[in-house]
Amino acid sequence: MTEANENRLLNFFTPLRFGILLALLIFATFPQVVSGLQTFVIRDFGFFSYPNAVFQRECFWRGELPFWNPYNECGVPFLAQWNTMPLYPPSLIYLLLPLQWSLSFFCLLHLWFAGMGMFFLARHWTENNFAAAFAGTAFSFNGLTLNLLMWPSHIATFSWMPWVVLAVEMAWRDGGRKIFLAAFAGAMQMLAGGPETIFFTWLLLAVLWLRDFLRGKAPRGKMFFRFPLVILMVAALAAIQLLPFLDLAAHSERQTGYADLRWSMPASGWANFFVPMAFGSQAMGIFFQNGQNWTSSYFLGIGGLLLAILAVRHWKQPRVPLLVIAAIVAVIFALGENTPVYPALRKIFPALSFITYPIKYVLLLTFIAPLLAAFTLAEIQKKPAARQIVLTAIIFFALIIGILFWTARADAENHAVFINGLARIIFLLATSALLFVFTKESKSIFKKIIPLALVLLAWLDVLTHEPTQNPTAPATIYAPNLAREKLQLRPQPELGKSRAMLLPSVFLRFVHTAIRNPQNNFLVGRVGGEADCNLLDEIPKVDGFYSVLPREWSEVRLLLYGTPNANYPAVEDFLGVSQITATNDIYQWQSRPNFFPLVTAGQKPVFVERYTLDTPLSRPDFDGRKIVFLLEQTKSFVTVSNQTSARILDSNFKTRSVDIEAEADEPSLVVIAQTYYHNWQAFVDGNPTPLLQANHAFQAVQISAGKHRIQLIYEDRAFEIGAVISVIALCGCLGALFFFRKKFEKS
Hints:
The protein has about 750 residues and is of the alpha+beta class. It folds into 3 domains: about 5-35 and about 80-465, no CATH class; about 40-80 and about 480-555 and about 565-595, no CATH class; about 600-715, Sandwich (Immunoglobulin-like), CATH 2.60.40. Helix content is about 50%, strand content about 10%. The chain has a 5-stranded antiparallel β-sheet with strand order 13-14-20-16-17, with no helix packed on it. α7 (about 130-140) runs parallel beside α20 (about 450-465) and α9 (about 150-175) packs antiparallel against α10. The protein is globular. About 50% of the residues are buried. The mean pLDDT is about 90.
């Protein structure tokens, strides 16, 4: 084969051709989802992502921003959650298009976008189209990335990672308009809302920048300010989302040391890189490692892993040592409590608690491995490495055989693991044989198709590495009001009127059990009120499923759900619980006739110095109609000393406001069973009045004698300040891009 022909062969994977190939692979993997015949359903996609997209969409079509969700957690900040993606521009895909198709399509579009980003990054680093195509395929198709499809926020954030690394590195090296393009890319990732991925992205960039700075890859004076400038611009562009989130975090239950070491990679977890179904079992039709439920897989592909490990022999290549070290650190940290390293470091650096589960460090490994594989593919075309390929393949073969013997001793009946390991051996042998031939001097026609064959083999390996990670179901499972029609609750919980509540034992049972059929698992959970499914039926509910909660409500929630047999009927009355799960059937509901309206009046104030985890709500003498607990520090705002005669004439709850008409014979307190949060402002007859923190985590205002109109309005000052900063930054970036474009045209 002539050198010209070989170059044409290796350059077959142009960006356009690879983009088309990747799209075809995604379609071949999820044909029914792409065509709209079915939708994703499993785990958090059905119980969190889709219901919250429904809520966001309804706010959008009412012309509102979704600041507050009044349906869950007795009211909870929504926009400030960050991972709900309320301000991420591509969210318009599922806000404008039919949701039952578009949310799944949104995830698959970002799967494609992830592969394209890795293609361009790997091509920039290796100057090799074939290596870039393999890296792009391996980044889109691996166990972890496919697992992320159930979280639109996570897959979106992860898809931006290679683009941000590429854009920011070019910015500090070349400057000019690339600085502003990098800022846009970084801001888009920031708005997508996956904190851990964002952290890993910028940590890796910081190390790469320091490496370039020390090696003088660009004028150090310019590099010194370009990188910090990009960071500052990203923060400014994303301030509209970051400031509300930071404000919520500061008023939340998430203190330093909050995160625990659950869901670390098991000590045997390394075996799953070689035999992905070792040491685990199936739930909902999905395979999980024993003790690991955050991800259903982190399998990199046997060929991708082989090539990534072979990159060690190219230690002198730029960036390879850094990437190898980062990959090793990621694996050690992912092991969490199963090594002494990470727990010790968490004590020294409490900020590491930011990573909620140690297994999330495999996000960094999943990003690095395709790049290392790309370096290997680029180098073996220059320096054949047939001997090293064969030797590494033999080691892999021995490891797989050893793992199969290991699992056979642990579970003699686990035939699925044997078949799984046998399949990996076949893919290992096929990949090794293709690589061996590829590194040999040959004019064979067969060699021309090896690059494409290796890419397809990498895809097929991951496609078959375990039972499907993303089961689908007919879109009808998300039909509005399905649960209301099925249950025929009397009375029906309605916004501002009453709520539903899961018993603590039922709440825990939903968390720890699952039905094998994913569709039935979701439908049962939806009818039973699991997680955020209530949003599909607009049923207000006491609990919910959110990452960050206001601190005071989190403490009350712990009281209600901290133990399986918790029982506080007086609190349930105060919270307006009209329906609760039946004690003898967790999928049925029973009515509670004694629930209070969500707005009551006339209570006697009882002042406490501070609220503690032993909340006053747990006191046996608590009666929400007669008394209300207030903080001692608010005593100066309250003139009421006894129970009074007052009536609530009307109340109307909306997503960011509450309107109340009340009448009192004397100064009285009005108590609202809605989560207290500092962004709520109170007005009586149009005049500002203090909003009191009542009954540990709820709201109260004082009114004078007579008839009054009370308004509670949600005003997010952090959002408003962030919006001003982001608009100014956006205008500045657009102006700078226009300036540099004109300058370029003149030159």
